[in-house]
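QA checklist item 7 of 12: single-chain prediction sanity check.
[x] sequence parsed
[x] length recorded as 167
[x] structure emitted
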Amino acid sequence: MTAEEAAADQLRLRVVSQFGRSLHIRTLDTGSCAACEQEIRLLAAPHYDLHRLGFFFTPAPRHADLLLVTGPMLRVFEVAARKTYEAMPGPKLVVATGACALGGVYQNDAFSYGSVETLLPVDVWIPGCPPSPLALLQGLMVAVDRLASKAADLSFVADTAIAGGTA
């Protein structure tokens, strides 16, 4: 087993142990030129094989743990972006992907909010125009740690009822 395969197995085990299953990603294009989407698609190709790491793309926000946003957050996508975010179950993460999503290319004007952060709470930023698949993988690894800490901070009704002795 090579060092790369060992690191991939370690990441997959970390994802499964922290979430009890794989991590599901919903992509949201808010007006990009599609260069970021091309790089994201490469992650599912055999060379990077995102699925072996425990990451899967889902078309439904109700099944997503992570929202991967590309584009400059055009104003016409405001409702779609908010509805997609609100449909996701908690804990949830938003990852701003590419220079447009970070607000570096298009500023706040009549057509664009500029940054994803103006509408959605961004947890991880992945810079680049477009970001390379390896940069995307690094951002997803950072997101796994952030999502695990968000999940650890949750308290459930059953936990508080047992702790209070009212179970």
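[x] summary fact logged: DSSP finds five helices and five strands in the chain.
[ ] second reviewer sign-off
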